[in-house]
Amino acid sequence: MLSFKTERHVLANGLTVVLAPDDAVPVVAVNLWYGVGSRNERPGRTGFAHLFEHMMFQGSKHVPKNRHFELIERAGGSLNATTWFDRTNYFETLPSHQLELALWLESDRMGHFVEALTPETLANQQGVVLNERKERYENQPYGDWDERMLRMLWPPEHAYHHTVIGEIADISAATLEDVESFFRTFYVPNNAVLTLAGDLDPELALAAAERWFGPIPAGAPIPDIPGVVDPGPVVGGAPREMVEAEVPLPRVYLGARIPPASEAEFYAADLATSILGDGRASRLYRRLVREQRVARDAVSFAFPLVHGRSMMLSWITGYAGADPAELEAALVAEVEGLADVTPAEVARVQAMAETRFLSQVAQLATRADLLSMNQLLFGDAERLNSEVERMRAVTADDVRGFAERFLRPDNRAVLTYVPREIA
Amino acid sequence: MPNDSGTSTLPDRSRPPAPGSLRPFHLPEVASSRLEGGLELRVVPDRRVPLVTGVLVMATGEAGVPERAAGLAGLAGEALMGGTRHRDGAGLAEALEEQGTSFRVSTGWDASMVSFTCTAERLPDTLALLAEVVREPAFPVDEVERLRKQRMAALAQRRADPSDLADDEADLVLYPVGHPWRRSILGTEASVDALEPAQVAGWAEAAYCPGGGGLVLAGDLDLAEAEGIVARHLGDWSGAPPAPPRLPEVRLGRERPVVIRHRAGAVQTELRILHTGPPRSTEDYHELLVANAILGGSFTSRLNLNLREKHGYTYGVRSGFTFRRRSGEFTVSTAVGTEVTVDALRESMSELSDYLADGPTEEETARARDYLAGVFPLRMETAAQLASRSAELLALGLPADTHHVYRDRIRGVTRDAAHAAIRKHLDPARAPVVLVADAEAVREGIEALGIGAVEVR
Q1: Does ipTM top 0.90?
Q2: Out of A134, A280, A289, whose CB is closest to B337?
């Protein structure tokens, strides 16, 4: 079992601070998770959590626009932020003697964001985000697949029904009042976890966190996530969509609801997707790519989501001229075939997952991010240490049971892309 | 402000807090030796995690393949996983993955690499398999054929991706006929279509050998342990690959080409501004890194602050030199909304020419130096990173201590030296421009910029 020692403190304003000292290299990772993501968005305001993340780099009371980047780069650090369904994270990795710089910057935008808000910065970042949307989704072959898949997997009244990037009209419609109220509602210390990992003295680091974040007042309790919490264990039907688009090769996506990441059975789902799609010895590669040669590539993964349910996604891309119905049948056969999984297959993906996990946590930034995740989503940062054990506890029977319960025709959304005939 | 946390005085937020005392960063020492057959071994001990990452570098790649066989080196690399004399491809995958070992072959222009990560206790098994893969590949005909078809499909995918299209078009504009970099590293549909399994075996026979390359192992081991295990499987491995063909000279024309690759209805334009550049061995290497960080190599670069943070034209813009073993290039790369394409190109060109004319400020130079010297250790944090950085050195033919002097060299770059270096290597007035765009929407505006004759393809 891993033994990353952590200390956990909760400041009077509700901010949870996780300290994970490791002085192997003179580097410190600062990682801040806010318990807000696209799941908290209201109808007509999709994409807002992500747009807001961009606004967090537009300056705060004591830090003018672009200064945050300038100062971290000058300090020899790297930084970024990402938005996901269940959370938004902000992170800096920098030489350890610059720890307080990151704390000053992060606390200034947690405590003094609104003072720097202007119509110009909002308009600017709406432009940036609309271009991000074009670059990643609209101007890409298959780029709108997740939007289409989410609509089939989740009912409109569930928070995962819409994408993180959101609708163009909604991004354009965001106002300064929206930004301010979103900040006051969600960007409060009682809705955040601050993890400091690396070359630090826990006592001094805690004092520094207290100094910079302690004076920020607590916010009100976080409002409930809009819509239904649990849409049910399965899709409850077989929604399907066929899209003719400017794609070169046909591709079939399958989606299913699976248990949330907080449940033991999620690990069975996770390993099931690895048995399908992880590595050249995986079923999809071995059978569909190597032997039957119906697919040129194959992918399968489970998202660790926590709001009610999570989801599993798989896809294969066929060769030019392939019959999409045959592609779908081939993929479905492998997904349903997981009901006969063997202990050796489970052992293979457990060994691969363990090596990969050890490689990931070797990097301070990733370790800090996983500590924040375990604290914010599961209430226990040190849960990280037992991740491998939870994964190792899964048996072939568990995977078979998962497959029988969840990989059924009434829990399957099918999305097919076929090349548009060019006249 | 209500505050029940016991803090009596508020911190001074008006300026950045003073840094603490700097702790020095020491790159781990690289221990080297040479095996009997000639394989160079570089070992970077790092005992923190019970894993080892290895990278086998072989000193030839796609540039060594004649144009009619373009794609052959890459196909051979993929086909290494198709099976050995002792086991088929499925059996090979099984043998590696049941031990949790990740294993991949990659083929570049100047080098081919096999990399893996395994638990330290599995290192002997993994090295045995590595040796089997590179020394006794079987290249079963049906596997080579499958991988060739997959490559054809990959080329078809590439044609549909605007960003890939722009990169491919850029190579056509920058490199003359007969230059390997003119084609995609995957090869062309015509050349890949014609590749035969026998060619793959022939290429492998000549190319996969230790001369000019080496094996890097980083992680939970030391040189003595490594030597023992490696010698068992690769100790007598010998030979040197053929020297790559001479590269034709690349010159920019007097007139700037402006090429629009038409994509009807595209909502966004992929934009590239191109230039020739020096190889990695250039004495201006560190100066060019600093100069480029200011222009377009960091978030707060001039290009990104203008196109993204001032105008909102793009999600991001980067510029950079690609330093290869024997040549190099420079590219500005971004994707911008169709409706702002002309404005974005005008702004990019004027940033480029202003920067080349006036150079960076002292403040910008200092910031770029601090940034590059400072982030360097972050890229050397784990054994896997140490292994891949060391492998890059091997592939470029650079000494093992190159990284140890990097930060001092960067810190020594002055404003004037950075300016002189980038002026020496870039002439923005001749830099070709490539756009993958809806030509009907952007053509007139681009012609009106008067930067060069516009050709629509």
Answers
A1: yes
A2: A134
